[in-house]
Amino acid sequence: MCYNHKDQSPIGxxxxxxxxxxxxxxxxxxxxxxxxVAWPAHAADGTGSVSGRVTxxxxxxxxxxxxxxxxxxxxxxxxxxxxxxxKFMVEIIPPGKYAVAIQGAGVPAxxxxxxxxxxxxxxxxxxxxxxxxxxxK
Length: 137
Prior knowledge:
The chain is α+β, with helices and mostly antiparallel strands. The chain has 2 domains: 1-39, no CATH class; 46-134, Immunoglobulin-like (Sandwich), CATH 2.60.40. Helix content is 15%, strand content 39%. It has helices at residues 23-38, 41-45, and strands at residues 48-56, 59-60, 63-69, 79-84, 87-93, 96-104, 119-123, 126-134. The mean pLDDT is 81.
């Protein structure tokens, strides 16, 4: 085989001189493929993620803890996540119905236990968003 031009080679379509496959283009394609595979990961494996906001009398709860427990489960099966500036997130959680409790400064006792709070959510595969508006009265 004879190649007359310095840019030609048996694998010329992969060389750095070919603008189609420049390092930037390879990086963009790699990121796109990773995103394409990772995006539906929660739905594919049957798990979900939960996020949302907590307000007390209309003001975001500065700090606290959100507890999620499937009805009938024991206390040690409770999922806990911090609340900061009124926001919370649980990245991986099995789907199902959960009793919710919210603990933090100024939060009335009626919201602090999943057994008596009366707050219920249903987590589905994928992403679920829940906002809780609590009152101090």
